[in-house]
Amino acid sequence: MLASQSPRRRELLALLGLPFRVQPAAVDETPLPGEAPAAYVARTAAAKARAIDGPAVLAADTAVVLEDTILGKPRDRDDGQAMLRRLSGREHSVLTAVVLCRGGQTWAVTVRTAVTFDRLDDARIHAYLATEEPWDKAGGYGIQGRAGAFVRSLTGSYSNVVGLPLVETRELLLTAGLLAGPDAGTAS
């Protein structure tokens, strides 16, 4: 069971060849006062995994982090513009925590990817905000879409930035006995 409403996570998990159902988890995703970004994604992913009843539940939470500040989904055009201006020409981190619960056991991992944006002028920002892409995405951008042209460099997992680090997710599924074989794109 995938405890997520993200179509991107659904698409990425499908690449591993494991059959699954989707059941979004309704949890409060508000960061706690003073909570570090890595602790936030770990806590939120774990809460999502625990919120769903099933024999095996996979959950994830992703945050875009600039200078230890979590940039959530933009509330409106002004918020989206402010986020993209802050990210312009700078490096930021994308953190994703993945939690898998099966048979009373829990496995978890948090993955960090460093992303550096090109300098974005107002025209590029306004053109991007005129699309549908930024509104449901942490940090106000989706690397797998038009905002891929904003990325000057990336160090780490590309799929992590999209929303589910595939290498680490595959390793959790193997450890939990949900995938078989060394190249496991085949479900057990």
Textual characterization of the structure:
With 188 residues, this protein is of the alpha+beta class. It has a single domain, classed as Alpha-Beta Complex (Maf protein), CATH 3.90.950.10. It has helices at residues 7-14, 37-51, 77-87, 122-129, 158-162, 166-175; strands spanning 56-66, 69-71, 91-102, 105-117, 151-155. The protein has a five-stranded antiparallel β-sheet, sandwiched between helices. β1 and β2 (69-71) form a beta hairpin. It is found in: Cytoplasm. Nucleoside triphosphate pyrophosphatase that hydrolyzes dTTP and UTP. May have a dual role in cell division arrest and in preventing the incorporation of modified nucleotides into cellular nucleic acids. The record marks 8, 62, 144 as: Important for substrate specificity.
Short description:
It contains six helices and five strands; from the N terminus they run H-H-E-E-H-E-E-H-E-H-H. By secondary structure, it is of the alpha+beta class. The protein has one domain (7-175): Maf protein, CATH 3.90.950.
Low-confidence stretches: 184-188
Strand content: 15-25%
Counting DSSP E segments of at least 2 residues, the number of strands comes to 5
| Rounded mean pLDDT score | 94
User: How helix-rich are the residues, as a percent range?
Assistant: 25-40%
Q: Evaluate the radius of gyration.
A: 17 Å
What is the molecular shape?
globular
Give the class-level CATH name: Alpha Beta
Separation of the first and last Cα atoms: 15 Å
- The CATH architecture name reads Alpha-Beta Complex
